[in-house]
Amino acid sequence: MSKLPNMFSIKHFLVVSLALNISLILRIVYDNEDGLGGYMRLRKTTTYESDTESRTEVPITHRLRLSTSNFANSTSTDHAEDRDRVINLDHGDPKMYDKFWRKMGDKTTITIPGWQSISYFSDTTNICWFLEPEFAKEVVRLHNVVGNAVTEGRYIVVGTGSSQLILAALYALSSHNAAEPIDVVSAAPYYSSYPLMTDFQKSGHYKWGGDARSFDKDGPYIELVTSPNNPEGHKTGPVLNRSNGLLIHDLAYYWPHYTPISSPSDHDITLFTVSKSTGHAGLRIGWALVKDQDVAKRMTKFIELNTIGVSKDSQLRAAKVLKVVSNSTEEENTQEGESFFKYNYEVMEQRWKQLRAALEANGLFTVANFPNGFCTFFNKKTENLPAFVWMKCEKDIEDCQSLLSQHKIMSRGGKHFGVSQRYVRVSLLDTDENFNLFIDRLSAMQL
Amino acid sequence: MSKLPNMFSIKHFLVVSLALNISLILRIVYDNEDGLGGYMRLRKTTTYESDTESRTEVPITHRLRLSTSNFANSTSTDHAEDRDRVINLDHGDPKMYDKFWRKMGDKTTITIPGWQSISYFSDTTNICWFLEPEFAKEVVRLHNVVGNAVTEGRYIVVGTGSSQLILAALYALSSHNAAEPIDVVSAAPYYSSYPLMTDFQKSGHYKWGGDARSFDKDGPYIELVTSPNNPEGHKTGPVLNRSNGLLIHDLAYYWPHYTPISSPSDHDITLFTVSKSTGHAGLRIGWALVKDQDVAKRMTKFIELNTIGVSKDSQLRAAKVLKVVSNSTEEENTQEGESFFKYNYEVMEQRWKQLRAALEANGLFTVANFPNGFCTFFNKKTENLPAFVWMKCEKDIEDCQSLLSQHKIMSRGGKHFGVSQRYVRVSLLDTDENFNLFIDRLSAMQL
Fold first, then answer.
1. Where is the Alliinase C-terminal domain (chains A, B) (predicted)?
2. Are residues A304 and A347 in the same domain?
């Protein structure tokens, strides 16, 4: 009689203890870090897929599975190492794009001779004197091809990723003689890095003012508008609309594979980045389209004082990549090539189908439904296919991030975006292997 | 009688008016801008040599002239366009190095396929998770080859140029809970960008405290030490040496072609940059050797919040360039190649010879004499050959920068370095064409 309860309790103790360990490790990492650095700490306690693994060349059709009935029949994800592997879907690391660029072979290969990039200067006739003319040309061409932004009469400012451009824009828009720093606001849920980026320098020019919806001061302010929104995925606009407000539009995801392109954006300051458009996050290249000359000058000055310009090599690579994206679109129209946007729209469409099926299977989370919209780029109705899924836990689950971490899925909880931990953001841009693991775990998940 | 004075006064008026125009344009640029942006504004009013012109392949021996008697017999600089051309020796743009790298042919050529640099991450096991392992390896190797820095037990943090690393170090060293920002000081004449970089964000963490020699507060401080010093060229150390002081050593010029390497540097935080070591300013790559793990973590965090890492492409290019520099040194020892440091030491030696001869010819300026020193790298006594010449105007000249600008030489006046305008800094790292024009104008200069 006494033997059975004893064995039972030891097993139970072991399971509870292991779950607690994993949960605690993840919690420590998350509570301390909102940025990318947390990844590194976790690395030592888990197995992370190597570059080689994540870059295995497998035709996309073999990886993607359509129906929920297939979820039990995992292929590569059946291995023991995969079952134990923590998958990091916190950061939106765009590894999904690796496959398309490998398919393109040497079309985007670039050769840089040793004597290139000696001078600090790229174009001394341009306000943004470190902007490579070739990159500027391809930015304009791509926006014209896609129809997602007005470029005429705009100054282009290149940045070390759009992060640097957000800081440059805050610097440019704030009055440097003001007694108080200007408030920087954004409607919750807002991009989790906005408060951190705004406040880490403890600048006397600007400070984080919180959720735009609850901003009740009379003074001037800067509103950060992310559309489609990160984390939610909806198209958005400013929520305050007061005469003393200044706007920065972060349109990182306003590309046809994520959202229907309704019309060319036409704002005072609009930010884009290659990290989320073409998937080249390691290039650290973003660009701003700026209406006002003086703002463009001040943004340039910021980047001059911050980093004395932006890597020429990465600008040249970005120029080549944007050129191939534009070419691929034009070739698609003449049936000669594979369109970057069409290919990646199909990947995202497939991923969202799997995701919705998995969510339906477990019933633990709710996710918004997005209306289809007419896309001027594809010239037909297309779906809204955000780069992240923003999930709300149902039933009595108070901490959605912790629930996922118990299932070895690293994600980013609602508190980082200014809302409750019942919400969580999960990246959909990882490798097929990791995305499939996520889907498998999600569909098998039970309370 | 009336005709002659009239003609005379019209001619005079024209000359005076033209001189005034040039002087005013230069003055506007300089008064508003200390950084690189001023160059761009001037561009529209002057003729600046095109890339093609500056990259003409002419053997260095044909360009360099040894004795003052040759100064009148200029070669390429005799053209009318050269006589009218403003030469920009303000920034230290290292165009001199173009020639060496062209000589190296395809040794430093790099080919990057389109699928490279997709992920944000370079090495998730490293504190500096965006540091490319290949770049880190070549940094360590080069320091070992040159013997200018201890790398053992150091953390390497890569930055978008050493500018970003200076800011990262200020952020890392300051106490974020302090009531007052920590004072940042440097001994005058200090690098002109230090005050601007420290204060442009109006940070609550740190603020510019001025000349270290006149710093009389009791509290904690950060001292920036540039050795060899920019602008002076002397080897320096901290001037305060108090127990509550923190040090950042900026050793951008501690390479054997500029100064005798006396021993490996061994400081808490040491900064280097490819801009001034190999001449690749357009890469925007610098690195820090950091003793304390926590400081390395905080510097990494700064770069994460500032630019989410550093261009991978430029790190890979920098790795290749550093590798070729190390190889060239080893090949030189086996008589197989041309040593980067030997070649560029000879260029600098030649330039300083021409410069001293020209200065002797006109007697308007004084320049320090530097003692020779034993260089452990060259294993012999070598000269101190700074990248800039720091000149003091003699006689009654109050504004040395204005005097040079009247001779169409853009330079940086003493006030930017915390001293009087009787001093001026002139870059010696420009193309042979521009350097020769500078020497010609200097030797022909009269009050």
1. 87-445
2. no
